RNA sequence: CGGGGCGUAGCGCAGUUUGGUAGCGCACUUGGUUUGGGACCAAGGGGUCGUAGGUUCGAAUCCUAUCGCCCCGACCA
């Protein structure tokens, strides 16, 4: 045993613990720091996989809760399909296999037996679901089929980032069948709008809705629509997709129904999904150098109460905050942090890092004045509120924060969206501040390819109902046929 | 799959150049004093240094191989 320990002198570090790299120093590192320090995830012992910890999973549960309600409201039901897809089913749709082949994980052994047909771990479930649908549908009376599945999927990714791109992720996939092309198209657009509205209302993320180009569309679809959001580093993130599958899958999987006119027809299908990637979007749209900033409607805990427990006043403060917690519980998701092993200052920093929208401070001085201190996470502003006004003020404040966060995100996107037809300017912007660039485009695949090679920017979406400003493609000079949003993407 | 970086206590790191039997901060445990923006004192617990070989009297340190992770690209929710 040595006698060296406890030399007595401790470093007097009065600074805040520098746990998070500032955004401006290294954006990727900032992102990683935030998700690790807030205990949202942890890396798995295998590359590309992660554990989603309670702090992260609670956000996924909020997403599920809010989206699931919207799915039900639009007539959908949940179901569950197998994790594995036999090779032959996956191979039926040519574009589909080709698109997913490089990222498939295969099961080749069951117990000690080599399987006579390998099973792919689902990268998406069109193939297996279509196989079921071909048996479930006979008559026009069986349509529409409106089913959604919440599950995990596996795509063997070469480069991965927590939440944004991992080899396994959680998502929901809606799979519907319809009698007509019009009905399928309407469904595709309806669900796209559900996503857009959800992102805006709940996550305070303004999203651009539009159509994907041929290059960017889903493998096997007729048309793909998407919602795209702009992150605070100027890169775009595909937040959700909705596909009109046409009859491609119906034909190869033989999904037919006898229509009222006595003719055997193929169904028209759609599929649509969002994933745990949305958690990454939430972090990158709203987070700051102190950590997470959660919109009140998404926050698993909306309000945290931090009592200031001096020795003399400990009991009466504690009694007061317990009573306060009980009183607020009915109207907000509130949590009381009455741990005595941490100082109030430590708790302030901790809950700010975790993004809790509102903090209530209650100390002896507040008790004397029948008031509390409210501090909002997004702006750091503090205010004094009398106990009588508190529940009403809190409700109002949460609404204000939600609205302000959306407004700020929208303002950021506006400030980082350029419109123009100057390819040189575009190249410079994609190299420097990035953001979105709305430009007239010729619609040609090879032109898009060229832009990508030269700038690493891609077409994020072709917005609805928008005429190109100018008649020449900004990149190749050909005839402009549509307006396109370009950006570097995640 | 290319380019770069890194594997030493739960986390962050020092020690590797020049080989000598492992240390610091945070966290953790116990007791006490504290509590309005990351408190303090004292006493403790915890590591076969990614893995496998090799060189050596002796390897965290040198050599070889191997595995993994992170970042930046090519390909993709």
Task: Describe the protein in words.
The protein is of the alpha+beta class. It has 3 domains: 27-286, 2-Layer Sandwich (BirA Bifunctional Protein, domain 2), CATH 3.30.930.10; 303-404, 3-Layer(aba) Sandwich (Rossmann fold), CATH 3.40.50.800; 417-487, C-terminal domain of ProRS (Translation Initiation Factor IF3, 2-Layer Sandwich), CATH 3.30.110. Helix content is 34%, strand content 26%. It contains 14 helices and 23 strands. The chain has helices spanning 27-37, 54-73, 87-90, 94-100, 126-136, 181-201, 248-253, 277-286, 314-328, 344-353, 364-369, 390-415, 423-431, 445-455; strands spanning 41-43, 50-52, 77-78, 84-86, 105-110, 113-121, 145-154, 168-178, 208-211, 223-230, 236-246, 256-258, 264-266, 268-275, 303-307, 334-336, 358-362, 371-376, 382-386, 417-419, 436-441, 458-463, 482-487. Strands 3-7-8-14-11-10-9-22-23-21-20 form an 11-stranded mixed sheet, sandwiched between helices. Strand 5 (105-110) and strand 6 form a beta hairpin. Helix 2 (54-73) crosses helix 6. The chain is globular. The relative contact order is 0.11. The model is unreliable at 1-17 (pLDDT under 50). The structure holds one RNA strand of 77 nucleotides.
